[in-house]
Amino acid sequence: MPRTLYGIGASPGVVVGRILVLRRHTRRAGWYHLPPQQVDLEVARFRQAAAMAEDELVRLRSQFAAELADSMSIIDSHILMIHDRMILDCSIEIITEQKINAEWALAQALLRIKKKFDRIADPYIKARYNDIKYVADRVFGLLSGRETDELTAAGEQVIVVAHDFSPEEAIRMRSENILGFITEKGGVTSHTAIVARSLGIPAVVGIEHITMDCASGDTVILDGISGRVYLDPTPDQRSRFLENEKRQRASSEELDFYTYLDSETVDGYRVRLAANIEMLDELDSVLRYGGEGIGLFRSEFDYFSRGGEPDEEVLLATYRQLLETLAPMPVTIRTLDVGGDKFSKYVHADGACYDYERNPAMGLRSIRFSLREPALFKTQVRAMLRASVYGHLRILLPMISSLEEVRRVKEIMDGVRHELTRDHVPFDSRVEIGIMIEVPSTVIMADTLAAEVDFFSIGTNDLIQYSLAIDRGNEYVAHMYEPLHPAVLRMIRQTVDAGHANGIEVALCGEMAGEAMTAAVLLGLGLDELSMRPPAIPHVKRLLRNSCSRQLAELGEQVLQCRDGHEVREFLASYLPWFYPQEFGEP
Ligand code: PEP
Ligand code: MG
């Protein structure tokens, strides 16, 4: 019977195929005592399995080096984890002290680690236990000679369904020609999802009990964008899917052509289409897809990839490379945005860390953290200002919720400018300072705040979470996370109006800027810049170039009249195909 299941779209792409359900039961470790003379041999057997697991990962790493540029660090961290004291030394200790077999010792070591992680409230850190488990599972498979290769065994092109997959399994799916995957566990920020996105494997995560709700051989349509899964699709759903697929294939060839065209409507109304990136490796794709600068550089990576606070020179090198590569295009670098679901347990170089927060999304996050750690913040600001001489820099402050915060940041920045001037260190005095509009209070106060800053950038990922009270990482309420909620659309319009009335630019850099349907609406709401993942840029450019400014303005007005998200979607479903048949099908 046809059924639609709702999960979280973790990696875009729509595929149809037969399902292969992998029901993996927790591996059971047999237990046996070792005679004393065999203990050393057992330790050697364990070390050999660990070395083999490492070899496999190293091989995988080099085989997919090019495609995995963005997520190489995940594989690197798994390679390091094999040698982690908690896994390696602890298992060896158990083997030697208790004189028991390696499988059992590894299972015990994992149990101890799990107990430690269970005590951690922070969801980001807690999720890292999965990585340790993936690594331990690999070693376990090699030890017990049961390195299950269900993925290879699949034989034909299938969509695989399981409780969870490791990032390495996602990589192997690429070489096994697996069409896509669906899991019960996971969120968009899980490492497996990140790898799937890097490799272009469509995926939906977070569908509870899916391994029980379907069987191998069932047909399914997986939509990695909306997070929907159609089990036993109706002939109508299937034919719509096939049509859509044909259109997408034809349009992706045509899209290359848009890369080099201006971002403007037929009557010359311009909207800057910029890129959101997190790492320098992504700079190539900004240029490849015709990005007109960077609308959001998430600067967290330098703080977490090296296991300690980066010094000013490290940050300067990153920012300089960004600015030099893209000059004279604008590069918007956001100051550190820790907390919430991102790296919330920030650990200082001396090992100290903040206590558990009951509600991290509303806690010591983003700019609040920077203001509480002024030395760390000053280092980042110094690096940014020093880099400013290499291109067109805009500094963006995340999660501002009051005028007071803007003023405190400006004071710190003035202090840094003063020091640099005193020390004869060059910097560009015209660097623009902007704030993210992510909290409803800043929308309401946008007219006041606009007088204090040079630009706004609306962060809808958070604005939706804070205004609709929907935790952006919670699978139970994911279906209520509605970017087209009229409350969200009205807040965007209010911000645009307040910005323009004060003569400043208003950008938007949430995920909705890169999805065709929501991007069309945003073009109609009068934003000056949309910033998105680089591959989405040509799609949005095509929408823009096939529009005229009056029609966009009318679209904006129409959606603002709707009473709920459902009405907005219904209106768009009837309106958009008339203007954009390539994106939304013939009317
Ligand atoms: C946002 O909140 O929309 C945004 C772009 O920031 P992030 O996703 O990094 O929180
Ligand atoms: Mg945000």
Can you describe what's shown?
The strands form two sheets. The chain has an eight-stranded mixed β-sheet, with helices on one face. An eight-stranded parallel barrel has the order 9-10-11-12-13-14-15-16, surrounded by five helices. The longest helix has 25 residues. The chain is globular and about 80 Å long. The relative contact order is 0.09. With 587 residues, it is an alpha/beta fold. Helix 2 crosses helix 5, helix 3 crosses helix 4 and helix 4 runs antiparallel to helix 5. Bound molecules: phosphoenolpyruvate and magnesium ion. The site of magnesium ion has 5 residues, from helix 19. Phosphoenolpyruvate binds next to strand 10 and helix 19.
Largest sheet: 8 strands, mixed
Shape: globular
Oligomer: single chain
CATH H-level name of the largest domain... which superfamily? Phosphoenolpyruvate-binding domains
Report the radius of gyration as a whole number of Å.
25 Å
Helix tally equals 25
Based on the structure given, which CATH architecture of the largest domain is correct? Alpha-Beta Barrel
Low-confidence parts: none
Q: Which small molecules are bound?
A: phosphoenolpyruvate, magnesium ion
The largest sheet has its strands arranged as 1-8-7-3-4-5-6-2
How many domains comprise the coordinates? 3
Give a count of the beta strands, DSSP E runs of length 2 or more: 16
Q: Class of the largest domain in CATH?
A: Alpha Beta
Structural class estimated from helices and strands: alpha/beta
Mean pLDDT score, rounded?
A: 86
For the terminal residues, how far apart are their CA atoms? 29 Å
Helix content: 40-55%
Into which percentage range does the β-strand content fall?
Answer: 5-15%
Annotated CATH topology of the largest domain: TIM Barrel
